[in-house]
Design a protein that fits this description.
33 helices, five-stranded mixed β-sheet, transmembrane helix, single chain, transmembrane, metal-binding, EC 4.2.1.1, 794 residues, elongated, Transcription Regulator spoIIAA, 3 domains, Carbonic_anhydrase
């Protein structure tokens, strides 16, 4: 009988690029580029380095790190947190070219850190600290833009602290701004804010034309136009000098090439180079890890950045930046958040940002130098507000003091110090609460009785440190004799070695008091792990493995209720529409194979998934499923690698199971010709698994329960690949297959020989009917003979 070949299943790879966000990424890259130009220049100026070195670092951060990083939304470049490190390194090394060499070495160190998987350090900072860092940056962005709104633009660098390292502070800046108040800057800033706020309104978002234009681009164009109009009214009203972006303008190709410089490799033997490189690598790596953690929080799609890969990408970026004359770089939260707010969703935004920086210095630096700082201040004000919304403060306040205090302390510390120091202080406060909660919730215990025997259950917390050793041992010391003690550490991510040693020492003394200790821990081969531990008898190991089943059940229940509080209520009310007849040797549950919930499939299993007419167990299941549950589909499912089919092929005598497998041997004999044409034993084995399923579906069709089913009933034959996990439908069409037998003649045994009968078959010709009615001989189905001549009584 012909069967269709299985359909090939295409493999699906993960998308490296997603161009469905192409338009949004262009907007994000454009806006972050506009904000980055003055910041790159300002950071270079504050660092005492050539102005163009900041632009180079921005280009490398966008193009090189943007291409290598697996962060979807982070954008890299020079960052204000590195200013102090650069200034001190320049002072120590004496020249910028020697600093370039140190930056290259720092990049190598970052790559080594990535290979050593040092990116895990970001996991030790609580989320409340990361969110506090974002809120603090938002507040600083808002406050640092106020002088620009009033028209004072001398402080070009937006360092992430209210009180910068050189003694300047916000109060001084505001005093200067009030003395040098500029009405044109104020008007441009207010109009810019109005445009940005209007673009967030539903009417603008629904408009097909306005919604397709980046609000920040409109702000820049309007800012340049307003400044031009102010100049027409009176040259005194026009903004110029430090009020505008100041990008270097090369006058020739030679001038442009001259902006790039090579490191001084003659200083490779200078030990100060490596000291500076270590400082740069340490600060840049920590800021990068914290920045990608923060931008992942801002990512609307909530993707996670692989931190070890990010360290390697940042390292390569710093090597390239140092080689061509750029400042050290890292992931920058300000321009990343600006890009996200403008619509950036993939790494294409970072590449657009870097490409525009490169093109700007080549093609139109003079045009960029027309952009007023006041217009950029409007963009940064809105970005700062989105980072430090009042709703974020309310959310952490409602979460309780353990969340709110690290959050607010991180904000305050960053505001009065700088980014890294503030994060360190916030993390210290967070660590205090972690230690306090760990000490308070290190363990919970309850007592109960099983068959008259006292049981004490001690559940360990997620983190069990040496601080908890004394309290745990106090509980163990007071346990009465003849008690079974269950210490549950399966939910513990960390158990201090001192605590483990104390528990194992207690095991020895517990035996003397007839106390049985059951210590549950994580592990795949659970019983083997326990039996291999010192001081643990095989009997104790067996009990611990047994109790592990109950712990697994509790974890399973908790997980199901966490996802759906009414899970078990819904499962109890399920009315299955499928009967699954499978093999006992297939260890994968039906719900896992098919992605169904408990109760959706009615299951029966036996060795080799057989449908045998004398199997009363199957007959009972079948009758109940069809008549009571009104099952609509019955599935016979075999699996490759079936040991029952293998035993039947090898004709091994294994007692009762050998007799049971005679049905499989009959299938093998019936299809002996087809199986014999296959080249290898493995091919014959796999094909016999499939043929066995098909024959069992035929057997199922001939049962009285199926023949007398009141409603529509569909029979299916499946085979499951235990190595690949894929289910294949053998596409057994019982009605079609039995229709093919209509050409086969039926004969009835009579005294005068075989009498040919008319009508259709209701069963396969390989199976003989013995139900013929009183006074009649058996009816035998026989394929047509040559010339349609009967051969007599068989």
């Amino acid at each position: 009988m012909p069967f269709r070949k299985p359909m090939s299943i295409p493999s699906v790879g993960s998308k490296t690029w997603d161009f469905s966000y192409f338009k949004s990424d262009l907007q994000g890259g454009l806006v972050s580029f506009l904000v980055a130009v003055p910041l790159c220049l300002g950071i270079a100026l504050a660092s005492g380095a050539p102005l163009f070195s900041g632009i180079i670092a921005g280009i490398v951060g966008g193009l090189v790190v943007g291409a290598l990083s697996r962060s979807a939304v982070s954008i890299s470049g020079p960052e204000a947190g590195l200013i102090l490190v650069v200034v001190s390194s320049l002072e120590s090394l004496g020249s910028f070219k020697t600093l370039q060499l140190a930056i290259c070495v720092a990049g190598v160190l970052q790559v080594i850190m990535g290979l050593a998987k040092a990116g895990i350090i970001s996991n030790f900072f609580p989320s409340s600290v990361i969110k506090g860092m974002l809120a603090a940056i938002g507040i600083i962005l808002i406050l640092k833009q106020l002088p620009h709104v009033l028209g004072y633009d001398a402080d070009a660098v937006e360092s992430l602290a209210l009180f910068s390292w050189n003694g300047g502070n916000l109060e001084t800046l505001l005093e200067h701004a009030l003395r040098e108040f500029n009405a044109t800057a104020l008007v441009i800033a207010l109009v810019s804010l109005s445009i940005l706020i209007a673009w967030e309104q539903p009417a603008f978002k629904r408009n097909p034309v306005l919604s397709s234009v980046p609000a920040a681009l409109i702000v820049i164009i309007v800012g340049i136009t307003l400044n031009f109009l102010a100049g027409l009214l009176s040259p005194a009203y026009a903004l110029g000098g430090t009020h505008l972006v100041q990008l270097p303008v090369p006058k020739s190709a030679a001038d442009f090439v001259g902006l790039f410089t090579l490191p001084d490799f003659s200083q490779l033997a200078n030990l100060k180079v490596y000291s500076a490189a270590f400082s740069i690598a340490l600060v840049a790596s920590l800021e990068a890890l914290l920045a990608v953690e923060a931008t992942d929080e801002l990512d609307p799609l909530k993707r996670k950045t692989p931190t070890n890969h990010e360290l390697k990408a940042q390292g390569v970026g710093n090597m390239v930046s140092g080689l061509v004359g750029g400042l050290p770089l890292t992931s920058v939260i300000v321009r990343s958040s600006v890009s996200i707010n403008a619509g950036g969703r993939t790494k294409l935004a970072a590449l657009v940002h870097g490409s525009l920086l490169l093109l700007s210095v080549v093609l139109f630096p003079s045009l960029l130098n027309l952009i007023p700082w006041a217009a950029l201040a409007g963009i940064l004000l809105v970005t700062g507000y989105k980072l430090a919304r009042i709703s974020i403060f309310k959310q952490h306040f409602q979460a309780g003091i353990t969340e709110f205090l690290p959050f607010i302390v991180t904000i305050a510390a960053i505001l009065v110090t700088d980014l890294l120091i503030g994060i360190g202080i916030g993390a210290a406060v967070g660590l205090f609460f972690v230690l306090r909660e760990t000490y308070k919730n290190a363990h919970f215990f309850q007592t109960y009785t099983v068959q008259g025997e006292e049981h004490l259950r001690i559940s360990l917390g997620e983190h069990v440190s040496f601080l908890n050793k004394a309290s745990i041992m106090t509980v163990l010391k007071d346990i009465p004799v003849n008690t079974t003690v269950e210490i549950d550490g399966t939910n513990s991510a960390y158990i201090d070695r001192d605590v483990l040693g104390a528990i194992e020492n207690f095991r020895e003394t517990a035996r003397q008091r007839n106390i049985r200790l059951i210590f549950l821990r994580k592990g795949d081969d659970y019983a083997q792990n326990i039996a291999g531990q010192p001081h643990v008898s095989s009997k104790e190991a067996d009990f611990e493995a047994y109790y592990k089943l109950f712990e697994n059940n509790r974890n399973w229940v908790a997980e199901k209720l966490r996802r759906n509080p009414r899970f078990f209520e819904a499962a109890a009310q399920q009315t299955p529409k499928f009967l699954f007849i499978g093999c006992s040797d297939n260890h994968v549950s039906v719900s896992e194979m098919t992605g169904t919930a408990p109760g959706e499939v009615f299951v029966h299993r036996n060795v080799a998934n057989l449908v045998v007419s004398t199997d009363l167990n199957l007959a009972s299941v079948l009758e109940y499923a069809v008549e009571q549950l009104q099952i609509q589909h019955i599935i016979v499912c075999g699996h490759y690698g079936c040991r029952g089919v293998k035993a039947a092929m090898q004709n091994e005598d294994e007692g009762v199971v050998s007799s049971w497998l005679n049905t499989v041997r009959e299938v093998m004999q019936k299809h002996n010709h087809e199986l014999g044409e296959l080249e290898t034993e493995d091919e014959r084995y796999r094909r016999l698994v499939e043929l066995n399923v098909i024959e069992q579906v035929y057997n199922l069709q001939q049962t009285t329960t199926v023949q007398n089913a009141a409603g529509p009933l569909h029979l299916h034959g499946w085979v499951y690949d235990i190595h690949g996990g894929v289910i294949r439908d053998l596409e057994v069409d019982v009605r079609r297959d039995f229709a093919e037998y209509d050409t086969i003649f039926r004969y009835q045994v009579a005294p005068d020989g075989l009498r040919r009968l008319a009508g259709n078959l209701t069963q396969a010709p390989s199976i003989y009917s013995v139900s013929t009615g009183a006074g009649r001989g058996p009816i035998i189905a026989i394929p047509p003979f040559d010339g349609d001549a009967a051969l007599g009584v068989p």
